[in-house]
Recover the amino acids of this structure.
């Protein structure tokens, strides 16, 4: 099941893109293990490196996300849906 969940996580729609990469937070000797884009399936939002932790360490995800992963690939979000997710989860802009 780990692999199916990791694949689901990797296939989410990109909400925030970056070229930054993460080192393994549990075993720092493993460097540059995953990207850190922010992804979503329209309901859940996660950092791209979560797939790495699921695969390598068996990191758990919420049961509802696990059920969605069992059902197949996440839906591709339209540009409008991507913007709506970003607005829901992004911090508000700083005050002037």
């Amino acid at each position: 099941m780990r692999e199916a969940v990791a694949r689901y996580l990797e296939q989410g729609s990109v909400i925030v893109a970056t070229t930054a990469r993460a080192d393994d937070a549990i075993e720092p000797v493993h460097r540059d293990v995953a990207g850190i884009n922010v992804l979503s399936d329209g309901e859940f939002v996660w950092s791209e490196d979560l797939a790495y932790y699921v695969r390598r360490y068996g990191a758990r995800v919420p049961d509802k996300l696990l059920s969605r992963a069992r059902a197949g690939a996440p839906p591709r979000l339209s540009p409008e849906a991507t913007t709506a997710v970003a607005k829901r989860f992004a911090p508000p802009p700083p005050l002037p």
User: Anything to note?
Assistant: The helical segments are 2-10, 50-57, 63-70, 79-89. The CA atoms of residues 42 and 85 lie 6 Å apart. The chain has a mean pLDDT of 94.
